[in-house]
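Hi R.,

Here are the chain sequences for the assembly we discussed:
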Amino acid sequence: MKKLILPFAGLILVTSLAYSAESIELEKGVIWGAEAQQPDLDLIARIAAMPPPAGDNQLDVIYRRVDYRISKGSVERTRLRAFRYNKEDALQDYGTLNSSFDASHQSIDIQTALVVNSDGTPILVDPKTVQVVSDNSFNVFSDRRIVALPMAGLDVGSIAIVEEVITTDRDKSIAPWSAIVFEQNSIPQGRFEITMSWDSDDLKPNWRTELEGMQCEERSDRSLKCFAENVEPYPLGENAELDDVIPQFVASESDTWQEISDWYDTVFQTALSGSPAVREKARSLADGLEGERAVLKAVHEFVTRDVRYVGLEHGVSAYRPHSTDLTLERRYGDCKDKAALMIDLLDELGIEMSPVLVSTTRRNPQKPSLPSVKFFDHLIVCGHLSDGSYHCLDGTDPYSGVDQLASYSQGRVAMTIAPTASLEQLPEERFTYRAVERLYLTLNDEGELVEVGQIDYLGAYGAIVRGILTSMNQDERNHWALNDYHNTVSDQVVPDFKFKGIDTPNTDLSIGWETTYDDMANVGDSLYYHEDAAWLDQSVGYLGSENEVYDYRLPGLRFESMVTVSIGDAWRVKQLTPDIDFTSRFGKLTRVVRKDENGMIIDTLFEAPKQVLSIEELEELSRFLEIVRSENSWRITGEPIEQ
Amino acid sequence: MNELDGMHPEPDESIHLAAPLAVWKLFLLLLLTLGTYYFVWLYRISSDLKAKGLLTGDPRAWALSPLLGPAMALPAHRLATRLEEWRASESREFGHFSDPTFVTVLSIVAYLLLLIEFLANGDLASGLVLSFLAQTTIALILQGQLNINKGRSYEFHTPAWRLERFQLGMAGVGSLLAVPFYFFYLGSAVFFGGNSISPGTVVFSDDERVGIRISDKGWSRVDADDMQEFSEIELAGPTSDTWAVVYDVSNSTLNDTLLNRQSMIEDDLQSPSCRQSKMLQEDGWLVIGQMTCEGRSPFTGNYLFESRVVRDENAIYEIVVHTQTTSKDELAELSRLVRTLADSLEVYSL
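And here is the predicted structure of the full complex:
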């Protein structure tokens, strides 16, 4: 371990900042505190004395503390982080430290931001270098801000310390207060503390910790102190739904999920305008349609395709949908706005649906240990039709049909806003990928192979491919299909492609093609022709995982193939390809081969339904998939017909 | 001189005949030499007949007459006829055993047995045994007649009735002996032919990477490469037309192995009915290719080929099991036996 040299006897180097004794407001709600303008030698000494976490890590958290102070009008969250940089990569990757807050109802006060370099010299972050940026992604706009702190003077062996206080104005926040702290991090932590205090007993929150080894003590002075030492990082691995596996500290002022549901019901109802414009639109959408399903389809299609996705999530709009009247007029909205519009339109047409809060990052309804609205990040609508069938509609997915819930919502944790609310898992399809291949191959008396093919992409698979093709023009679609064909089948030909169902999510998406291969067989000689099941290979390639840490969620594939091979112009069929029956606990590949007067017909079906597999099972899954890929080729042999 | 029979002519001292050979001695000689004395005996009888002027040609050529196959019936008929002429010249009655037609028919039967066993069933050894038994009977009958003829000529005093009875007795004893002899032969062929394997035993290749779990009686191991080149294991079945061979085909693919095996069978046999399929080992990850070819040939009767090609991550092995039979009753049991063995290939190359 490198020894930290502490800055005594006036060894403090002065940065370009001329220290002042007063706080600086970098912009509205972003305070550069007076404490941040001079090094806190006591804090530095305390942190330097802490034992670092075990292991040879490029970056350590020496000390992490989160403190909540709950008052009637506000909640102050003080967060202190002390990182030690052990390798150069860490300097590159983690040299800028971020803090985020919501400017609509929060302010941030940076109290410490400094580096103690390998010589023991403290170097303060110059507030002039601090960047405050919006956290807007494409077409989503909110009050969330990121304060980026470029840590100055970092070298290997440095320690960076950042401490900030984020104050939540409870009068400006409409959501019940709660906090979720991920207790494990991607890097090891030497010491981790969570403390809470509350001004009065009625403000005492519920709390739970999930970290093994975390020691908590609730004190009579209305405080809680928890700490853990040498907290291992969570393992990095593919395919993990990390929110389902990382231990979390949760504090919430809500006692039940019903409270959350009731609160959100009141928030949501304010958006349902039932205005004349909405009623008229509903009637025009349903005009001439018969049956609830047709109405559902028309409303879903309108909201997903004619109301584009734009999220204006400022202030209370982080939770409250805009008025359906406004959303209809603007023809845009986020998931909440679209959900409210669908409910309003369907209500006008006699179909009752409910809003459903969704956590797109969680699948385990048992995992959230306390009720909190912060678990959710999405909203859809669900309900029963009069025939008893249950439907969930996601207004943000323009590529799926009415019977197809968006793949990012399927199987996720959800809560229906209803008088009896609880966490549940949304329904999911047995197969994420479903495709049907039809291939007609003719080896003619000139030795050419004429290929006519079509693939129907169904379900979520159709939505994925539709999502790729929708924004393309015809040339781009042809180019995409050609690349796909060349990468999957052969680059010897340039087929003509036809597309169906790209703009109609309620119909199957099909890509068809025709092409001819020259000189594929010598007429007059015996015939031996074989092919790999190339499109099946492509789809099977989506399955499997290199993951060595977390359970693997097999997405599910159903691939049906009908191949008709005709050789009758020049050959008499001699030998057919074998039937196949590969049945395993992961799925099955079956093939039935029939001889017909001109050749053979091959019916192949691969099915591997959605399932969760342990790490131990992945090796066997790989073996099964390898067998499927290596044994799915087919062949035909023939004797020449005397001309 | 025989007092009971004083009517025979004086012997011609210028004719040199071999001393009479007691029929029971001939039987023993044939038995102990596994029938090869038949050639010597033929030489002797044809020499005697030539000496009597009843036969032309070199006796050595007559001795080799069985090699003519079915045509041997003609020399046998001729020998019997000449002996009958000899008897007639002695004006003696010897009973129906000396009837040349009977000898001829018996000779033809002997060769038919040989033909059926060898050509129809491919079992030369069984054919030879049956043929030997039939020809022994011929030899005994003819030797009896020869002895009586000689008795007249050289004053042997054995009465004809006694010889006839002796012939009948020896034929009966021969028949009784023939039955256990034949079955002893069949049993010993399996036993000595290649170490019969007890059910439940696993027969391994030399490198122990592949084995066959035997579950039926009647299989015996023969040295690899005995029947087929480059084989790992070879087994002989309970009939001479039932066999199994295991190959290491790791340098090929499962699909090509099935394709080539079917092509070979289709090239060799008339219009076999073949089918192929592939499956996964139950509760395992071996890929098993299966090929069945069956059909009927006018020469061989019903035949069945079962092939299993087993692939693991490192190697591919093939077992080919074959049987054929003219018996419909036998076919069902042999087919079961063959399929059971084909399904019992075990691969240990992981």
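Residues 17 and 48 of chain B are 5 Å apart (CA to CA). Strands of chain B lie at 202-204, 210-213, 220-222, 231-236, 243-248, 273-280, 287-297, 301-311, 316-325, 345-347.

Let me know if anything looks off.

Best,
T.
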